[in-house]
Amino acid sequence: MTRPARTHVIREQPPVGRRSGKPAWYTPAAVLGDAAAAGTPVCAAFARADGRNAVAYAAVAALAWLLVRAARDRYADRRLGERENVGSALPDWLVLIGLLAVVRAATGEESPFLLALAALVPCAPVSAAMHALLHRHLLARRRTGRAVRRALVIGEAQAVDALVSHLAKRTDHEFVVVGVCPIGDEDPHDLAPVAARLSRQAPSRMPADSTPVIEAARRLGVDVVVVVPGPHLSGARLRRLSWALHGAQCPLMVVPGLTEVAGRRVGVLSVAGLTMLNVAPPLRRGLAALLKAVTDRLGAALLIVLLAPVLAAVALAVRLDSPGPVVHRQTRIGRGGAPFTMAKFRTMVADAERLRHQLAWTNEQDGRMFKIRRDPRITRVGRVLRRCSLDELPQLFNVLLGHMSLVGPRPPLPDEVARYDEVERRRLAVKPGLTGVWQVSGRSDLSWDETIALDLRYVDNWSPAGDLGVLLRTVRAVIVGTGAY
Predict the structure, then answer these.
(1) Which whole number is the average pLDDT over 59-68?
(2) Residue 267 near residue 261, CB atoms below 8 Å
(3) CB atoms closer than 10 angstroms to residue 20
(4) pTM as predicted
(5) How far apart are CA 161 and CA 183, in angstroms?
């Protein structure tokens, strides 16, 4: 049987004995950053208004913000520097506003309400930006083998291979596999050394399982043992192994097999002595969905008004640059497979659709999309518009009409959708977006599989805070222009 190509671990493995936790300065940096994010704008606003009690108001706002963040466990070591802390600023900010409203009503405070609310607006984005910097710093450390946990993986060879390969392909997590402990005689592939081996049959005495595992864990200096359950390691056997590991002060984690499910959607239940995972469905209805719909329409209307001079200037530039219509209209597929007409500024010559068939052999994408880095059909002005993403601005009218959302997957063409498999059609479960995770993660530089993975992660784990994060990252993506062609 032919073995698949070896997957190389990108980052270095930390040496035995080094406990590479997160830097100690993360906690004070997070606390001081959050305090400044709330206190500074409040102090500036009230000092500018009347100058009275500005410092006191700032202190109250900063203290309230820190209490909210601490109560929601944002300063726990396991959360500091992680991506989830970046997206937590918006829901925490809403709790802060509610808390201060209650305090204001209870104390009879008579400060201008709108001034206080406006002063707190920068709080969430500033905190999110500060935690994003911590996240970037943590990722840089993890790529070089720091701030990681040495892991020993136990399971059947195939399951071990799948987990180790998945972890080795990415560096945005805290685990480095330094050894594996396969069950049975089959050898895993050489992604990590075999540190011990367990029998397929559950032993009659517990030390037959626990002794080789604990010895391997101590020899390799591991920080955690990760178990992949299977037919030969489940139920009572796993329970007994956990007793021994915990008795030896060795942390244990169990991989349930779920992939790309956000932690906020997963809850742990104990039913009749059985441990179960409750997986909440993706957000599709309720207050969050209503908030998204209202934000889309109001946001699109506001942007159309604010960007009217830009829209007029771009339209004039397109008209003067080459013959053809200013706005290119094209049928795209929206939510649930419903077709709609999408508008964008024309960036190609007038007969671009006919020329596409002649250029099919030059396609640089590996999947359903058609992309050429130096497409000869693009006009001079069109190349600038694509570089700055200005060609997408007419899609604000699609958002206003309800065909699209401000944030969502890329709207596909009908011929692309015709070739979708069952998994790829899942991306049609939500409205396509003016921007999205694809656009802020590399755009056309991504492979088709990477694009689908990002879109499906968004579809299944969408949240208002996640949308806010994508909108903020869109600004950077437009400025940098990575993958825009």
Answers:
(1) 92
(2) no
(3) 19
(4) 0.69
(5) 12
